[in-house]
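Marked as duplicate of an earlier ticket. Keeping the data here for the record.
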Amino acid sequence: MTKASDIMETNIITLTPDTEISKAVGILLNNHINGVPVVDANGEVVGILCQSDLIFQQKDIPIPPIFAILDSIFPLSSSKSLDDQFKKMAATTVEQAMVKKVTCVGPDTPVSEIASLMVEKHFHTIPVVEGKKLLGIIGKEDVLKTLMP
């Protein structure tokens, strides 16, 4: 059975939370990668930044749905959610734009489970960790390579 440690890339490009967005965009584009793990000073995964997180900055400003009755206005979405979206759209550092709740796998995770995560959750990049320590990264191409003879 093929597992994460068999297919993961160990020459990993990483970012830190304080990396500027413009530098992060350059790293993604110049290396032709979709996502980059974000690590702290101890090499522990604290987030992941993907192209979609950066494309989010180009969205139109969302207009929150409201309900009006008797001259009163009631928001139909949480103000925290709207505030989070505004912060992400105005991000200047990786920490402000990254996804903080990262789905990671361990080195013994079967490729079938990794493929399921990618398909069901629409992930393109999954960090491989032991504890929180980054060991490797798996992208869709790594999984596709397992189909070659």
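See parent ticket for discussion. The chain has one domain: 4-145.
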